[in-house]
Structure formats: structure tokens, C-alpha cells
Amino acid sequence: MHAVILAGGKGIRLRPYTTALPKPLVPIGDEHPILEIVLRQLARSGFTSATLAIGHLGQIIRAYVGDGSQWGLRIEYAMEENPLGTMGPLLPLLDRLPEHFVVMNGDILTDLDYGDLLRTHQDAGAPLTIATYLRQVHIDFGVLTTDDRSVVGFTEKPSLDYRVSMGVYGVSRRTLAGYTPGLPLGFDELVLDLLNGQRAPHSYEFDGYWLDIGRPDDYDRANAEFTAYRELLLKGA
Q1: What is the CATH number of domain 2-131+163-233?
Q2: pTM, to two decimals
């Protein structure tokens, strides 16, 4: 089983933490970089190899991770010279990837079983499988429904439920085969192309622990919660 970890972003929203460190290497709980936690989880889930798509401060990631043998993984690298979006970095790599693989952002803290996601994707025969998480949005205002200047409905401070992408995907090579290597390709563009082509992606619904560490507030929360969730995130470590 193989994973591609997207680790080339500049982490602008997480500054000043990412001024000298790439975002996947910021430490959680003063113990483990996010990327190390992800690599440990992949190895525990049965993955044997991974590709790190690196860019900004990529040499630091390469120096820390090395060949991955310390986690029982075989690691190779793909350098992203220019930003190519979420899926764009995969296109030049397709010949080196298995038919089915996992793609994930390198700044995610979760106890998702990556192996089960990949097996579910492969068994479903889906072009793309998106790990999804239920998020509630609380509206602090009374919400009106109007029709031709008339108020026809009212809800006081409702909560809206949405399924959001976790930044983890099961992908098949054939899904990306028609795109041009070297050109940007975002997750949003791929999903819209699949929907327009009547090839709906599948949803892998998850209700465990998930935190996208994209902002200082998220990073502070991850550090505050790490002691409580350490055993869940790093079983046996």
C-alpha cells in the first residue's frame, strides 16, 4: 500500500511557526512533528511506501525523514518547483504509483485508518474516495426565508450540518490519466470534472478525531489536546 503526502506548501496561515520550519515538521506536544505521527500511522496501517511531494523548505523535510526506514517505510521524494494544487503534483508521478493509493495533506492530525480507506476505495471501484467529517456551523442570528420581499420562514439561531473534506483521499491512476503533467490541478477541479462526467466520487464517512492544523488556533488546540489523545494517535508508540 502506498501513500502520497502533500508537504510542499509554505504554511503562510501558520506563521510565525512556519518561518523556519515546513508546516509538516512543526512539533505536536513538544514531542513529534505532525509528519512523523502520520508516517507512524501509515506504517501501523500496513503501508510499506510513501512519496513526499515537497517544495518550500523541502530540504529540511528530506533531512529529517531520510529514506523512512526508521518507521519501516520506503520513502521517495517529488520536488514541486511551482504550486500545482492538490492533485497537480501527482500527475508527473503516475508511472511510479500503484493503481490505487492514498493522497493526503501533510498537516492533518487524525486517528483515521488509512488502510481501511484505501481498501474501501479499491473495493468500491470509485474514481475518487473522499474522507469526510461532519461539521456543525452555528448561526448567531435569526435566519429569514424570503420570497418576493415577503418573509415566509424564520429560524432562530440555527445549526447547519455539513460534510467536509478531511484532506485525505483514495485515488486511482486512471482517474488522473487524462490530465496534463506540469499543469495545476486542484481537488475542487477534479471533483467538478467527475460530477460533470457522471462519475461521482464516494464519501468515506469518519466520526473519530480529526484536526486540520492550518492556523495558529488549530495548532494551539492540537498541542493542548495531544496528551489526552496521544495513545489514540500513536497506538503502541
Answers
A1: 3.90.550.10
A2: 0.85
